[in-house]
User: Fold these one by one.
Assistant:
Number 1:
Amino acid sequence: AQSVAQPEDQVNVAEGNPLTVKCTYSVSGNPYLFWYVQYPNRGLQFLLKYITGDNLVKGSYGFEAEFNKSQTSFHLKKPSALVSDSALYFCAVRDGGTGFQKLVFGTGTRLLVSP
Amino acid sequence: ETGVTQTPRHLVMGMTNKKSLKCEQHLGHNAMYWYKQSAKKPLELMFVYNFKEQTENNSVPSRFSPECPNSSHLFLHLHTLQPEDSALYLCASSQIAGGPGTDTQYFGPGTRLTVL
């Protein structure tokens, strides 16, 4: 069965500094990896995904994530954080088989960007 | 968020009430999902409908009853709920059975449910 770990409950960053939100995963087959963001009182918004190909994936709002197969990680990054990036971030993984495969989410990491 | 809409956004109900949550997707997808989001816990998948047929039911209590009349609409009927059922209920949709990269789930804004 697949699983996702987000080891940090909260990440604090000053505006303008680079940010990293960590995610490690476990899956039996090829991983399909996703990042979502959730703002207060809102649903989850899709940021980016890795299916195959280039290990560096670029997504919405200047975010990117690096797939590292040997370390089974998919950390979310942004070169320069904005106060408006403050939100709850979820990593998710599914097995890359055909048909329906359950998407498993981590517990979320709260990102706080200070002015 | 206009791709997937949910109503109502907030709901307060007593344990003896019957209510329904509604979800509608405008993305042309063929699969819809109900998730439960509680504080400090991972999202819990409750139900999955693929081509209007229920394909997953993750041991959800019978006081939650899903209905999917067509591929664009999904309901969650609630009755005799417990206070621990208070949570944010999220609906999502995706396009299954396409090629890789098509199965991204898109979420609605959720219904904040409080059971008194």
Number 2:
Amino acid sequence: GEQVEQLPSSLIVQEGASVLINCSYTDSASVYFPWYKQEPGKRLQFIIDIRSNMERKQNQRLTLLFDKKTKHLSLHITATQPGDSAIYFCSASSNTGGLSGKLTFGEGTQVTVIS
Amino acid sequence: DAAVTQKPRYLIKMKGQEAEMKCIPEKGHTAVFWYQQKQSKELKFLIYFQNQQPLDQIDMVKERFSAVCPSSSLCSLGIRTCEAEDSALYLCSSSPTDQDTQYFGPGTRLLVL
């Protein structure tokens, strides 16, 4: 089945700096890639997504790049703020036979923004 | 934002006891998913319902869990005989269809002693 790898597992960044999180997947049938943010004690929050027919998507300070050939995604967060401190999850969903949109998640990247 | 609800938020069970947790999907969402998260790490897919019918599930769920969606506004996940390894955060998500963005509830944290 699908496997999603996410790097780094953790990082610390100065407020105002940028963050880059890398994600790779194995199943070429995966077509949808949502990213989530999880703050301590809070629910998993959807932040941005991309489908396999796109190469780039931006949402305010978030930019998501997708390379179908290498099966690689990268999430770029600019102008980081203390509120960006959280665990970020990459996920992938295939549409194999239209049976399930279940998500396969990476192990998460703990981002800590320090003032 | 979607407002998926889960109850209870916390659940403590002894080994061998039965556990049950509930999920109220976002109104109008036809797809419901359950995931298990241990130690704030990787989320593992458990089972998926489309229009209240279970369409995909992992072997562990078939063997030891019970899951139903008796209505479009309520789903439940049960563990027939709790084991220590079942201690985890159980997350429910729903989406308008199985190919749309999934919105997550706050989860039920299960501790098995």
